[in-house]
Amino acid sequence: SMGSLIATYLLSSRAIAPIGRVAALLMQYHSASRSLKALDEIMQKETERPAGSVFISTPRIRGSVQFRGVSFTYPGQESTALSDVSFTIGAGEKVALLGPIGSGKTTVNKLVLGLFRPQEGSILIDGRDIRQIDPSELRKNIGVVPQDVMLFYGNLKDNLLFGSPAVTDREILLASWVSGVEMFANTHPKGFDMPIGERGSFLSSGQRQAVAIARAIIKAPPILVLDEPTASMDHVIEEHIKKNLAALVKDKTVILTTHRTPLLSLVDRLIVMDRGKIVADGPKEKVLKALQEGQVRRTA
Fold it and tell me: What CATH number does residue 201 fall under?
């Protein structure tokens, strides 16, 4: 009868519903177990402040950088990223790292920031081994523009102040003018309160680089590490930034990595790298002439 059919349908639905919930719970369990495993792997990684380690307080750094026979291989890799690299950059000196892709330029920048430790050799900041300096104090004294700019969900001002919460509005405006951020902030109805989306998805790649430049200079660090800072910008914005940076970095140490020739006007010295080794190092004009004449050869 019709009543029997309805009763059978209702009972079967009530019987199947818990089975469906079990399937959903199993999916949640597998998702939670994967997340827990990932968190466990993170927690088991080596920390920058091992128990019992003692750092020497260095609240302000002058800006000299020295590599002494540094060799480094990335974890899990067989090929050497740097091999017996030695150079000295004096406080306030402006140096550009040149070389083909994979030559070790970005690796040098990461080692200066203390993100990795070399397997051989030592890195000195102001004559002090970088392993003796508190990582937080080291990075407070270094402004960095990485190749891959990392922005966070929120507004433009929050991202400019990331890592520098005590900065004044005047310093924000100055950094925004130097980096070109004000060019697009002033045209938005919300100004510096404009949303930028997750990972800066509402901004173009050039605008994200402008934010990274502003964030690097906003705290007036004595050392600037610029890794392809204008790679995604047009020549007009690049010229604007180059002109402003030239006046801003007069008393700062600059380590510039670039394939854009116009930016070389910011530096006085060139270090050419190839396959993890230094193949040329000297005054800008001298090294450029050697490159043009084919006197600088790739390593074997």
Answer: 3.40.50.300
pLDDT at res. 300: 53
Return the ∠ at Cα 191 (arms to 188 and 193), rounded to 5°. Answer: 120
Domain assignment present for 5:
no
> Is the CB of residue 241 less than 8 Å from the CB of residue 175?
no
Name the DSSP class of 147.
S
Q: Tokens 């610029």 sit at which residue?
A: 226
Query: Is the domain of 102 the same as that of 190?
Result: no
**Rounded CA separation 156/250 (Å):** 28
pLDDT at 60 over 60: yes
Read off the pLDDT of each residue in 205-210 and give the average, rounded to a whole number: 89
| 165 and 238 co-located in one domain | yes
**226 vs 13, residue with greater confidence:** 226
| Structural domain boundaries enclosing 241 | 141-222+234-249
The C-alpha atoms of residue 130 and residue 26 are separated, in whole angstroms, by 48
90 and 149 part of one domain: no
Question: Which strand ranges, in their side-by-side order, compose the sheet holding 94-98?
Answer: 142-145, 223-227, 253-257, 94-98, 269-274, 277-283
What is the average per-residue pLDDT within 195-221?
88
Q: CA-CA distance, 216 to 256, in Å (whole number)? A: 13
Q: What is the CA radius of gyration of the chain?
A: 26
What is the mean predicted confidence (pLDDT) over 216-221? 89
Strand ranges for the chain from DSSP E:
65-72, 82-89, 94-98, 120-125, 128-129, 142-145, 223-227, 253-257, 269-274, 277-283
Q: What is the percentage of the chain residues whose pLDDT exceeds 90?
A: 34
